[in-house]
Design brief:
Structural class of chain B: mainly alpha
Largest sheet of chain B: none
Largest interface: A-B, 44 and 35 residues
Strand content of chain A: under 5%
Largest sheet of chain A: none
Distance between the termini of chain B: 59 Å
Shape of chain A: globular
Helix content of chain A: 55-70%
Helix content of chain B: over 70%
Radius of gyration of chain B: 19 Å
Number of helices of chain B: 7
Distance between the termini of chain A: 36 Å
Order of helices and strands of chain B: HHHHHHH
Strand content of chain B: under 5%
Shape of chain B: elongated
Number of strands of chain A: 0
Number of helices of chain A: 16
Order of helices and strands of chain A: HHHHHHHHHHHHHHHH
Oligomer: heterodimer
Number of strands of chain B: 0
Structural class of chain A: mainly alpha
């Protein structure tokens, strides 16, 4: 580990040196294949490792969904390429799809990938505060991925206990039959938490302590704020679930009875511990997704982000409120109605700061010089699709309404509309936007637009029918609808959702071609292809080891576009006053 | 080179003033403790909620060996004192003394684990195992998790002691000390909750 890596730029601001062609090249760069590509401590390499691992897991998670959808559309036939889907396997598919998408796609991609890549670059730091801890975080995460995927192949198969792993289903082998699957699931998720705790501490200390001279907290790009708040939420919410998982593991392997009413325990205890983490987790995922959108909208609208400070305060408020909404997942678990009302109120309250952020995004677009690049399409698409997730969240958050739709496809539609925008729309927006910085080449815009319109269309074809299914009482996690006579006439909606899934998966093909093809054939990007203000665009693409040649000095906030009286419509954060870009 | 100057050279890296004016290591260890507090906090709250529902657990708590627990409280507090002395010694550039004090912490940490092992053995011989009811499940889970943290802390102090011997990264004495005090504080909560509330 080189010491220079964790050295912060000195406090005295030196004169901003004009960037040179080989800016960022440093003597302390590691040499050799293994130390560069595998055991690298460079935040940019770790970011790419996280990103690619997360994308691979997304492929697996997507294919699992495909098998489920095919089974639901054609329950009397084997799924092509997979075979018969027995009930136990179906439950394992549900469990693993949820677990993979939340813990092994959303978090590694949004936090591990974009957070790692952008935080040091955006604040003018040479690397994360703890580069070796950063590397350890990735390798711990990779081990957890291997354990999780490995659990498919053990006797009894992968965990069928749902991504929430409620006891008694998860605590008693007799109920699920997965003697190995459930303990492996707990181990994989626990390791993943350890990885993201290491990452989270790194993110927080880096973001608040390694800022370039002149960069005040209110000069931070919104992405850094969102990553910071998301990391703090994660750090303070995951502990009770770690405790809960320890108790679950003890119930499972040692025979204690923490969650077993027969032994004096209480299964509701687990639900509280799980959702005390599980709901803040939604914001751990949502906030970085919003951060990506907040970076992209001003650049392609050539306007400042509307209400920067208000969005920061709204983000902080979201973070605080996210800790007191969890029991809205338990409205049908025998909760006291007075308590349910309290949680309904907090839940509806949290939509206020989130709505403020969304309106700020819309206001940013208002009268902007909008350029509909693929990145911008996905960013706007994120706001548009998330609308449905947010609005239906208010229905689910009101205890009285939730009791009616709880555990139906309405909820399935709701959380996919709430999670697909920050996870996939933001992910794609971020890749179209930062790919040039990551790999030095641009992605093809035409393929990007095909990718967007396909994804946008088929997300709605897949999930919009599920609102209808749910409102008409179709229970989620139904293995075989043929046993419920009243579900028969709802089958066309299930069929539509399955066709949507197939379309959605096929829509990703242009992206895969684009991603790998552009590595070789993409147009060379240059330092700042989008004429953006934030610091990552002031260094070469891709940036060298150590990021900055010298220390950048920050003179202004991140979103100074189209200011009146200026010659250019942008003002980079590190541009000395009086100079033009 | 004087001892103080050598020390200054060794810790210069961490003395660079950061955006907040707080060293990055110290900041990180406090955030780390934040995450630890909610783990123990979650478990302790679970225990307290059950305990309030079960006044009869007081009778069970009488079977814990209170004198041993009290002795262990004293041992752990004293080990924390040694840690403070080690940090003070580092501040004065006296690395030899710091190293000696850390040895004191490690020895007392070992005594704590030994006493705890004796207690476990005693309780199990009386038939109180982790599966003999929810009180004992909580007792073993809470003290076991704490003992794991003590063990981890001992290894961390041992590693930092090696660094001090090599005169490198001596600022980590303070960091590992902060962690050790945390382990100490957790025990201060566990002792009355599990032993004394009978």
């Amino acid at each position: 580990m080189s010491e220079a890596n964790i050295l912060d730029p000195p406090l005295d601001p030196p004169q901003a040196a004009p960037p040179t062609a080989h800016a960022g090249a440093h003597d302390d760069a590691p040499h050799g294949f293994w130390s560069t590509y595998f055991f690298s401590t460079d935040h940019k390499h770790i970011a790419k490792q996280y990103l690619l691992t997360g994308l691979c897991m997304a492929v697996i998670g997507g294919l699992l969904a495909h098998v489920m959808r095919m089974h639901l559309a054609f329950p009397d036939r084997a799924v092509p390429g997979f075979g018969e889907v027995p009930a136990g396997t179906y439950n394992a598919l549900i469990t693993m799809h949820g677990t993979i998408m939340i813990f092994f796609v959303a978090m590694p991609v949004l936090l591990g990938g974009f957070g790692n890549f952008l935080i040091p670059l955006m604040i003018g730091a040479r690397d994360m505060a703890f580069p070796r801890l950063n590397m350890m975080s990735y390798w711990t995460f990779l081990v957890s991925c291997v354990i999780l995927i490995g659990s498919f192949f053990v006797p009894g198969g992968a965990s069928p206990a749902g991504w929430t792993a409620y006891p008694p289903l998860s605590a008693n082998v007799a109920y699920s039959g997965a003697a190995w699957g459930v303990p492996l699931w707990i181990a994989a998720v626990a390791l993943e938490f350890v990885a993201f705790l290491m990452g989270g501490i790194n993110f927080i200390t880096t973001a608040i302590n390694l800022r370039a001279p002149g960069m005040k907290m209110f000069d931070l790009p919104m992405m850094v704020w969102m990553q910071l708040v998301a990391s703090v939420i994660f750090l303070f919410s995951v502990g009770p679930l770690v405790a809960g998982a320890v108790l679950l593991l003890l119930d499972r392997v040692a025979g204690t009875g923490f969650y077993n009413p027969g032994a004096g325990g209480d299964p509701l205890l687990y639900q509280h511990l799980f959702w005390f983490f599980g709901h803040p987790e939604v914001y751990v995922i949502l906030l970085p997704g919003l951060g990506i959108v907040a970076e992209i909208l001003p650049v392609f609208a050539r306007k400042p982000l509307f209400g920067y400070r208000m969005v920061v305060y709204a983000t902080l408020a979201t973070g605080v409120l996210s800790f007191i909404v969890w029991a809205h997942h338990q409205f049908v678990s025998g909760i006291d109605p007075r308590l349910a009302s309290a949680f309904s109120i907090t839940t509806i309250l949290i939509s206020v700061p989130v709505a403020i952020t969304m309106f700020a995004f819309v206001a940013t677009l208002w009268k902007g010089a909008i350029e509909l690049k693929a990145a911008m399409l996905f960013a706007i698409g994120m706001v548009g699709v998330f609308f449905w997730g947010g609005v239906t969240g208010i229905i689910n958050g009101s205890a009285a309404a939730d009791i009616y739709v709880h555990d139906t496809y309405f909820v399935v539609a709701h959380f996919h509309y709430a999670l697909i925008p920050p996870v996939f729309f933001s992910l794609f927006a971020g890749i179209y936007y930062w790919y040039p910085k990551m790999f030095g080449r641009r992605l093809n815009e035409t393929l990007g637009k095909i990718h967007f319109w396909g994804t946008f269309l088929f997300v709605n074809v897949t999930f919009m029918p599920m609102f209808g299914l749910g409102l008409r009482g179709y229970p989620r996690r139904t293995y075989d609808p043929r046993v419920f006579a009243h579900l028969g006439d709802l089958h066309p909606l299930q069929l539509a959702a399955t066709l949507g899934t197939i379309g959605l998966l096929l829509s990703q093909i242009p992206f895969v071609i684009n991603f790998f093809g552009s590595l070789k054939w993409g147009a060379v990007a240059g330092k700042n292809p989008w004429r953006a203000n934030t610091l990552e665009w002031s260094v070469p693409s891709p940036p060298g080891h150590g990021n900055f040649d010298g220390t950048p000095v920050v003179y202004r906030g991140p979103y100074e576009y189209s200011l009146p009286g200026g010659d250019a419509d942008w003002l980079p954060q590190d541009l000395a006053p009086g100079r033009t870009p | 080179m004087s001892r103080a100057a050598a020390h200054a050279a060794a810790t210069r890296r961490d003395d660079v003033i950061r955006s907040t004016g707080i060293s990055t290591g110290r900041l990180a260890i406090w955030w780390f403790l934040g995450s630890e507090i909610v783990i123990f906090g979650g478990l302790i709250v679970c225990y307290v909620l059950f305990r309030l529902r079960h006044p009869e657990w007081g009778a069970l708590a009488r079977h814990t060996v209170t004198p041993a627990g009290a002795f262990n409280t004293l041992v752990l507090l004293t080990s924390s004192l040694f840690m403070v002395l080690a940090h003070a010694a580092v501040e004065h550039g006296d690395l030899k003394r710091a190293s000696r004090h850390m040895l004191g912490t490690i020895a007392l940490g070992g005594v704590f684990l030994g006493v705890k092992a004796f207690e476990y053995g005693h309780e199990m011989s009386m038939g109180f195992t982790p599966v003999s009811g929810l009180f004992w499940s909580f007792y073993y889970a809470l003290t076991g998790l704490h003992a794991l943290h003590v063990t981890g802390g001992l290894f961390a102090i041992l590693a930092v002691r090696q660094m001090v011997a090599r005169r490198s990264d001596t600022h980590r004495v303070e960091l590992v000390g902060i962690y050790w005090h945390f382990v100490d504080v957790v025990w201060i909560f566990l002792f009355p909750l599990l032993y004394l509330s009978n």
